[in-house]
Known about the structure:
This protein is an alpha/beta fold. It has helices spanning 3-13, 30-42, 61-64, 79-89, 129-134, 152-169, 180-191, 193-202, 219-226; strands spanning 20-25, 47-51, 72-76, 94-98, 105-106, 116-121, 137-140, 208-209, 215-216.
Amino acid sequence: MPNNRYKRIKSVLDKRQTDLTVCLDEVHKHHNLSAIVRTADAVGIHDVHAVWPENQKRVTGNTSGGSKNWVETHMHITVEDAIADIRERTPGIQLLATNLSDTAVDFREIDYTKPTAIIVGQEQTGISDTALALADQHIVIPMEGMVQSLNVSVATALILFEAQRQRKIANMYDDSDLCKSIRHKLLFEGCHPVIAKQCKLKGLDYPAIDDEGEIIATEAFWNTLRYKAS
């Protein structure tokens, strides 16, 4: 495989921000959902949480641009389940809800170098009352025109890139604590997609790869991979 692809994937994984996430509170339009996943990938987020309404469409590749292969989307039935999972994964995380309220602050006043989850709401009714009550702080994007809100994917992008800006200043992209097993899975599948598919079909664990991205495996592994059941 081309060495530059291995280096590119490794570089991306080295910058993953495991304590920064987004929670989509019943965002149901697939183009918005996919656009948010794409933005999450762009700023180095590994996990996105989504509360899925009944019959909601899945993330589509035409808008996410393949980002759904690099960002783990966790689906939840209720927003309570989503927030509980977020807090369990990252104890002490601050939960920010985009909402125009009396207690809301400018989104740029937040310290995003802290573990942070940003809750955004669905296109018509916004964030649910339950999510608003569970949030630690409400945030707003200041408006100077007649409209009171932006498209949900645009608003999410503005907030996430402010988080990225702060984290880059704090050198938080210099190191990642992404789980080694997840890191290896993504590296292997990104560098060797055909062999990864065969491993899944045959129930084989992914073998190690060296510093050039080449597979390190025994002859027995290769024989098993080539074997076709009759």
